[in-house]
Write a structure and sequence with these properties.
alpha/beta; 19 strands; binds iron/sulfur cluster; globular; 5-stranded mixed barrel; 6-stranded parallel β-sheet; binds 5'-deoxyadenosine
């Protein structure tokens, strides 16, 4: 069949069908189903990509399993910090033995780490048991690449440097039936000086609002009630479209979708967070009472070196504005400790912001040098013991403050979206409040995917034990 005249999605469905035939043949030969597993590292963006990979694998006929003892294992990698890379190499090393026992097994790698040429060189040299390698820009070609691997019978490598292509309408499999991530844009143009993302995810590209709305409407028709809009910098959504549209306007349109109950989004860059967005957040009840607003550092001097384009004062002012418009909003953040040249005074500024803002939670990271980023060649890299000490002090402050801040809803009734039966105590269910705090309370499977009012009895640092409000007297 000639595939040139087809749309990209149609071409990919053609390859899915070809692969499906192959899977069926293998299953007949082996007399058992072929299994596949997707192992995800990193952020929400990767989690979403993994749903797409799973959708394609299922379409091809694989039975999905949770274990790496599968006939097809794909690692969706992250490279934001060195640790993430080390973990992947560790897992791959172990897989060598596993593959020896099941020689027909296929191992694939994709995601951000594959966009680094040194990584691919290392894999080619020292990890010959890997069958398929691709990057972040061509995951829509997954089926075609599997087809190449099974027909050519050699290691297949396909990495693109960048792309302006966004392929719509491919299969995807949602991890939860009631909530999902929705990509609204890809890539990042900000070039924070420590960050490798703009190099591995490419330039910013926004999806068309019609395509986003259509995807959400379909998801809602399928039972989804909560969505998380995803992008590296959602606040600059739509600026480069032929018909520009603001993120705030996109949110307004999305909130009109009947049946959709909760809207979340991440990540927001403080420099692009508009007054229009704050207004929409205060007006639209469907928008959750939570904002993830990465601080990175509280020191204006360090923020400048990080190329973040805001000062400590700008950040605090923004928080003030948000709290005025949305008084009960929960704020969470990302903080990096030990950026090159960070002094004790700079670190104290970070602690000061932490105290002043009162985050519901903060993800704290030790600065990790990423080759190719401007910060990697900056002078004054901070010694490891100093960084560790600051990191521990920060973690301690963040946790103490978060425990206090989180408990502010104790003895109130809040809406909780039930996500699952508690794995440790099946008489309980676990869900999340609008502000993303986890709540465990009495309930059963029938509540999954429903929003239930819950009386919050006691706060245990970062989660609540509650009681279905209907049972509370
Ligand atoms: N070192 C440590 N943390 C980093 N992050 C991004 N790059 C690095 C790095 N080189 C953190 C930032 C970002 C989060 C996703 O990861 O805090 O917000
Ligand atoms: Fe990295 Fe900065 Fe882009 Fe976030 S905004 S992905 S930290 S470069």
């Amino acid at each position: 069949m000639l595939t040139e005249h087809l749309t990209e999605a149609e071409r990919q469905y053609y390859y899915m069908e070809q692969c499906h035939q192959w899977v069926k043949e293998q299953e007949e030969k082996l007399g058992r189903p072929l299994t596949a597993s997707v192992i995800t590292f990193g952020c929400q963006m990767n989690a979403r990509d993994s749903e797409k990979l799973t959708g394609i694998l299922e379409k091809i006929g694989y039975t999905m399993v949770d274990s790496e003892k599968a006939d097809f294992v794909i690692y969706n990698t992250c490279t934001v910090r060195e640790n993430a890379n080390l973990r992947v190499y560790g897992r791959l090393g172990q897989m060598k033995q596993v593959k020896k026992k099941n020689p027909s097994m296929l191992i694939a790698l994709c995601g951000c780490m594959m966009q680094e040429p040194e990584v691919v060189e290392k894999l080619k040299k020292s990890y010959r048991h890997v069958d398929l390698i691709f990057g972040t820009h061509n995951i829509f070609k997954f089926a075609e690449l599997i087809y190449r691997r099974i027909t050519e019978n050699t290691m297949v490598i396909d990495i693109w440097k960048d792309t302006d292509q966004i392929v719509e309408d491919l299969p995807n499999d949602r991890k939860y039936p009631f909530k999902t991530g929705i990509n609204i844009m890809f890539g990042c143009n900000n070039f924070c000086s420590y960050c490798i993302v703009p190099y591995v995810r490419g330039r910013e590209r926004s999806r068309l609002p019609e395509d986003i709305i259509k995807e959400i409407e379909n998801a809602v028709a399928d039972g989804v009630v909560e969505i998380m809009l995803l992008g590296q910098n959602v606040n600059s959504y739509g600026k480069n479209l032929e018909n520009p549209i603001s993120f705030a306007e996109l949110l307004r349109r999305i909130c009109k979708i009947d049946g959709l109950l909760r809207v979340r989004f991440m990540t927001s860059h403080p420099k692009d967070l508009s007054d229009e967005l704050i207004q929409v957040m205060s007006e639209e009840p469907k928008i959750c009472s939570h904002l993830h607003l990465p601080l990175q550092s509280g020191s204006t001097r360090i923020l400048t070196k990080m190329n973040r384009k805001y000062s400590k004062e700008d950040y605090l002012l923004l928080v003030d504005k948000l709290r005025k418009a949305c008084p009960d909003i929960s704020l969470t953040t990302d903080i990096i400790v030990g950026f090159p040249g960070e002094t004790e005074e700079d670190f104290q500024e970070t602690l000061d912001v932490v105290e002043k803002v009162g985050y519901d939670s903060a993800y704290t990271f030790i600065y990790s040098k990423r080759t190719g980023t401007p910060a990697a060649v900056m002078e004054d890299q901070v010694p490891e013991d100093v960084v560790k000490d600051r990191f521990n002090r920060l973690l301690d402050r963040v946790q103490t403050i978060a425990a206090k801040v989180c408990s502010r809803h104790e003895n109130t009734v809040q809406d909780v979206l039930v996500e699952e039966v508690n794995s440790q105590d099946p008489s309980l269910v676990t869900g999340r409040m609008s502000n993303n705090t986890v709540v465990h309370f009495n309930g059963d499977e029938s509540m999954i995917g429903k929003i239930v009012p819950v009386y919050l009895k006691s706060c245990k640092n970062f989660y609540y034990m509650g009681e279905a409000a209907a049972d509370h007297k």
